[in-house]
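Input/output pair, single chain:
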Amino acid sequence: TSTTSTTTTSLNFADDLNNEQKNQLGEFKFTAFNKEIILQQNPREGCGGYVWRAAYVLSKYCENEQIFAHNFWSQKRVIELGSGTGLVGIAIAAQGGHVIVSDLPVMLPLLTTNVELNRHATPNIQIAQISW
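Output:
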């Protein structure tokens, strides 16, 4: 007989919080490809102002070496539409991808802040205003 153990971790994502709690969010720390990524969140900017659960899951999926070979993202060209806080694009750039993160004009200040906060880990990243 085998026993399976499951551990559940609460990640406290903004979509799990009420509006008052969302306004208290600030910094989001994340490790991608063994590099620490720090993101600022500003829910007052709208739905793109905080890290979505989907962005976290996709970032973790992209670093899974059982799915993607080691250094798979290195030198790949990626454009992320509607980047919001920029988590996915920054995570892929941390692996060596050439990434363009993009969003609407209202989101560019936050996106720019987050790219600059992580410039040490993401030298091949650019920011674009794209109204999609």
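The beta strands are 27-32, 35-40, 77-80, 98-103, 125-129. The chain has four helices and five strands.
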